[in-house]
Every structure is written in structure tokens, then in C-alpha cells.
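hey
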């Protein structure tokens, strides 16, 4: 069979789709991927065929208006002029790239047995699948459909209603580009949100995280008849050039605390490393810092701090005392699988959601990265290194799905859905 996988965003968005694609390829299927141009090499290094899809995602995150929005995300949610500017500039970017991305994906999906898409630009892919009348499978890294378990401190009906309204408003705001796409594909004008249309078509909506992370959600979504299955977090567990060096450094001293920042730009790398160094020195800890997409090439050097670009989480995290990171779904899951406590220093809303779940599971704590100081970092690290958090983290690890099982389960679902056009 022929599978086309479309995914946009950072490596954390692309790797889960690539993990499924690689397994489908291993099973003898034809697999093609559409990913941002800056991640084509990454996908091809995993043995997959990829084409450029949309603008460079790292450049997009580095744009000034995005950095300014992220700098104080919660406060900017209530800053109407900032929001209007953000929506206007975002809409202009989306409108410019939407047509090219549609052309790319329409060409790639011709003759496909199934179209598989990540969360970003999900509705674009859904329209292409509708155009070809082929099954659609989507991949979600946290619960993005309306549910009552997203924010544990709020009443379930309120969460459901607020989520529904938010995504309806988002759909209305971005409707112009979608209307143009549907006209080009000779599809009728959409009269409802893309989430509802995806569900109404009976699409497969894979939940690429563990149900244990959101207690009660599996029972709420049981009504979907297996169309929202939980498979666990998807990763290829790729090695990096720094793994051996990092392993030697860890072995030469006490287990370190991992600090990572992923694709979210750090405003001042030097100040961030200095804060980490001071906090760890006060606690008598070592720090392993992964720069991600931020430039840490000119940061100060400290004997108890090692800075690298990237590491294999599956190999390194079990050798650490705790993990401190931005709250991406994949990094959060890697920490939970490793059985060590977590501190999430979040910037975006989905990262705050994972921070709330880490606190709910009592395996760690969370706060906004912008409000983090040396003093708060010391206090938070003392909290998560307490015996009760360490014990709870180890217990939670036993309930997490193993990476190989996650990939196998997702590939089984996609393969069966392409063959039958339905779940089961």
C-alpha cells in the first residue's frame, strides 16, 4: 500500500510521524513524507523519502513577532493589539504558504491508500484526503479535541465548552485560506469546523501519548468506538554524535540534572546557563544542558555544567537525577518513561498543559519559564528531588508504554485503517 505522511513544525512534531512511517516502510509499504524544508535531511537520515512542505519552521519560530508573543504568552493572550497583530501576520504567512502546501500534498497523495497528518495544518491535509476520498489518520500529542480532562482544576463541562468555542473561533478566523483551498479542489464550502468534519468522516485520530497522563480521558472517549486510540508517545530513539561523550561525562561524576529547551528560542543563552549553574552549584548538583534550536555557542563554561546540542533521551535520561525542560510532549514522555522527576518551565499553552499533568501525577512541578529565577529554580529542584517525587516517578514509569510497542501499535492501526477504511 501507499502511505503519505504530512507533518509540519519542529523535530518534536515530525519525529512521531517519521517513526510510524519508518515502521510502515519496514513492512514493505511505499511511504512518502512531506515535512518543513529544514527537516527533510532529518527524515531522510531515518531512511525515508521526503519532500519540502511549507516554509522553514525554525525560521518561522525565530521571527520577531513570534518571539515577542512567546516572551510573555499568558499576558499577551489579553493584550488585544498584540493578538490582532499576531493573527494578522500569522494569517498572511498561512495564506502565502497554504496554496503551495496544497499543491505539494495533492500531488504527493495521488494514488495513496491513506493520508496521515500531524496536528499543524491538519485541516489542509483533511481537505486533500476528502478530495481523493481516501482514509485520513491524524496524530495528536495531547488531547486537542473537546474533553473534560484537559485542565484538572476546572469543571469538566466548562473545559469542554471553552475548548469547543476556542477552536470554532480559530476556524472562523482562518477560514479564508481554507475556503480558497476547497474551491481549488472543487469541494463544497465548509460549514463547520475541521475537527467536526474529521470526526464525521470516521477518521482515525491516534492519541500519541499514554492514557495515564490524563486520568478519566479514556473513559470519556470510549464513545468513539476505538477511533481515538491511545498508543503512547512515538519516537525513533535516534542516537546522536554527543551520546558517547555525554555517557563518559556522566560516568565521571554524580548523576546530573538534565536541562533542555527544544525548539523554543531562549532569549539569553548566557543568562540561562548562568542561572542553571548557580542553582546547581547551590544544591551540589551537576547539569547537562541541551541547547535545542537556541544558540549556546558563546555561553560561559562551568566545571559542573556540560552543554551539548542534542542527546538520545532514551539513553541519557535514565542516568540523570531529574529532567528540567520546556514541556514538549515527547520530552515529557521520555522523562516519565525514565522514571525520574520532572520540572517543566513552560512557554506555550500545550506545554502548560503537560506541566499541569506532571503536577497532577505528583511526579514533578511546573512554572512559566519567564518567571523562573535562580531562587525559584533552587526551590523547584529541591521539591522534585524529594523522596516522594522520586518514588512516584518510578511507579509511573511502570505504567508507560514502551517506545517499540507504541510504534507497532500505531503502525498496526494505520495499516488496518487503510485496508478496511474503518477501525477494527
Amino acid at each position: 500500500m501507499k502511505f503519505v505522511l504530512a507533518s509540519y513544525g519542529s523535530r518534536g512534531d515530525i519525529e512521531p510521524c517519521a517513526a510510524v512511517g519508518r515502521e510502515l516502510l519496514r513492512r514493505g509499504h511505499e511511504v512518502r513524507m512531506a515535512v518543513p524544508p529544514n527537516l527533510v535531511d532529518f527524515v531522510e537520515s531515518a531512511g525515508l523519502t521526503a519532500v519540502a512542505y511549507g516554509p522553514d519552521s525554525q525560521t518561522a519560530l525565530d521571527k520577531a513577532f513570534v518571539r515577542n508573543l512567546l516572551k510573555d504568552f499568558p499576558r499577551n493572550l489579553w493584550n488585544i493589539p498584540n493578538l490582532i497583530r499576531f493573527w494578522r501576520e500569522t494569517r498572511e504567512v498561512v495564506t502565502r504558504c497554504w496554496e503551495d502546501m496544497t499543491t505539494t500534498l495533492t500531488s504527493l497523495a495521488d494514488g495513496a491508500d491513506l493520508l496521515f497528518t500531524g496536528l499543524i495544518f491538519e485541516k489542509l491535509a483533511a481537505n486533500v484526503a476528502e478530495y481523493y476520498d481516501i482514509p485520513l489518520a491524524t496524530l495528536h500529542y495531547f488531547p486537542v479535541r473537546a474533553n473534560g480532562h484537559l485542565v484538572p482544576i476546572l469543571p469538566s463541562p466548562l473545559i469542554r465548552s471553552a475548548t469547543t468555542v476556542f477552536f470554532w473561533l480559530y476556524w472562523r478566523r482562518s477560514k479564508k485560506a481554507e475556503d480558497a483551498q476547497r474551491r481549488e479542489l472543487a469541494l463544497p464550502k465548509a460549514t463547520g469546523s475541521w475537527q467536526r468534519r474529521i470526526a464525521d468522516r470516521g477518521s482515525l485520530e491516534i492519541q500519541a501519548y499514554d492514557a495515564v497522563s490524563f486520568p478519566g480521558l479514556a473513559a470519556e472517549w470510549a464513545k468513539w468506538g476505538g477511533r481515538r486510540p491511545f498508543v503512547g508517545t512515538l519516537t525513533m530513539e535516534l542516537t546522536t554524535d554527543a551520546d558517547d561523550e555525554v555517557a563518559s561525562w556522566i560516568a565521571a561524576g554524580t548523576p546530573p540534572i538534565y536541562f533542555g529547551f527544544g525548539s523554543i528560542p531562549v532569549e539569553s543563552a548566557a543568562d540561562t546557563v548562568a542561572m542553571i549553574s548557580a542553582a546547581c552549584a547551590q544544591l551540589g548538583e551537576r547539569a547537562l544542558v541541551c541547547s535545542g534550536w537556541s544558540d549556546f555557542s558563546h555561553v560561559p563554561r562551568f566545571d559542573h555544567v556540560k552543554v551539548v546540542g542534542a542527546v538520545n533521551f532514551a539513553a541519557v535520561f535514565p542516568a540523570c537525577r531529574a529532567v528540567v525542560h520546556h514541556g514538549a510532549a515527547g520530552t515529557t514522555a521520555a522523562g516519565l518513561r525514565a522514571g525520574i522527576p520532572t520540572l517543566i518551565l513552560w512557554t506555550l499553552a500545550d506545554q502548560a498543559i503537560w506541566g499541569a499533568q506532571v503536577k497532577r501525577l505528583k511526579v514533578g512541578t511546573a512554572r512559566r519559564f519567564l518567571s523562573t529565577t535562580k531562587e525559584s529554580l533552587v526551590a523547584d529542584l529541591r521539591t522534585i528531588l524529594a523522596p516522594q517525587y522520586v518514588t512516584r516517578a518510578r511507579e509511573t514509569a511502570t505504567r508507560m508504554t514502551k517506545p517499540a510497542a507504541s510504534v507497532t501499535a500505531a503502525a498496526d492501526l494505520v495499516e488496518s485503517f487503510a485496508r478496511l477504511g474503518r477501525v477494527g
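The first helix runs from residue 11 to 26. The radius of gyration is 21 Å.
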